[in-house]
Amino acid sequence: MMNSSFTTIQKTNKYSISSGHILFYDHISSSNRSLFIPSLPTTTILDSQNNRETFIIHSLIDKKYKLKKEISINLEREDGDFIGAIPELAIYAWGNNFYSMLSEINYDITELCDDLYNMPNEALGKKPKLWKKFFLEHIETVNG
Amino acid sequence: MAKAFTEKEIRKSLLNKIDFIIVKNPGHWKGKIFLNDVLISKIKIPNPHNKHFGKGKIKVLRKSLCLSLSQFNDLINCPLKKHEYYQILENFK
Q1: What pLDDT is recorded for position B91?
Q2: Above 0.95 for ipTM, yes or no?
Q3: Helix (H, G, I), strand (E, B), or coil: what is residue B36?
Q4: Of the candidate ranges A27-41, A73-87, B40-54, the one whose mean pLDDT is the lowest
Q5: Which of B38, B44, B60 shows the shortest C-beta gap to A124?
Q6: Under a CB-based contact definition with an 8 Å cutoff, are residues A94 and A107 in contact?
Q7: Contact A85, A92 (CB under 8 A)
Q8: Looking at the complex, does the CB of residue A67 fall below 8 Å from at least one CB of chain B?
Q9: Dist. CA A28–CA A6, nearest whole Å
Q10: How far apart are CA B67 and CA B63, in angstroms?
Q11: Which residue of A has its CA nearest to B92?
Q12: pTM, whole model, 2 decimals?
């Protein structure tokens, strides 16, 4: 699996902000063939004072959905692993490879979206109702 | 304070105490938690590794389980029984 990224970096006193495109190979694909998914734009906000990083994703790998608003991913590092989380959706992933962690989260977003859109509201608890609301605000279906 | 658990210990306790609807993905299994046919939450089930499960991972996992840190420790260590966990979930229905 190969991954690469290119970024532009803007630094301020407190934050370092970088924008660019992360190039993914689909490590989740069940086939043996890696699937090249070009150009997933992200913005990184590095808060070095608080040792936190936030990644903002601007698009989804699965093109049946489109982002209306950006989604932030919190990043922590622990024991050599990258831990990414979207607290509003209870989505998280970890791994020793940053890019695979990020692409797993991206897949989890569309998977959860699929699940929630296919379930009636009365079958959703308090948290899943909030997740669905978040999706309705942030994601639209392409072609209807 | 977060206690030291391995991924394997956490996985074993979770699979024993929670009736997940499991989706077996190539990476982590995913477990959906239902209470009376209502979806309450979903988690990624840790793999059966002997690797230390750090506090950052515990934080994201326990939040998805709708548990405080002490409740999470009790769930994995055993004092928190299955029926007691499902009583906690009633608050999230």
Answers
A1: 87
A2: no
A3: coil
A4: A27-41
A5: B38
A6: no
A7: yes
A8: no
A9: 22
A10: 6
A11: A126
A12: 0.76
List average pLDDT for each run of 10 residues in chain B, which is 93 residues long: 82 92 85 94 92 90 94 89 90 86
CA–CA dist B65, B13 (Å, integer): 13
CB A54 within 8 A of CB A47: yes
The Cα-based distances of B24 to A12, B32, B37, B46 in angstroms read 44, 11, 20, 12
3-state secondary structure of A133: helix
By the 10 Å C-beta count (0-12 exposed, 13-18 middle, 19+ buried), B38 is classed as: middle
Chain B residue numbers with beta carbons less than 8 Å from the beta carbon of A80 are none
Q: How confident is the model at residue A142 (pLDDT cuts 50, 70, 90)?
A: confident
Contact: B60, A92; criterion CB under 8 Å = yes
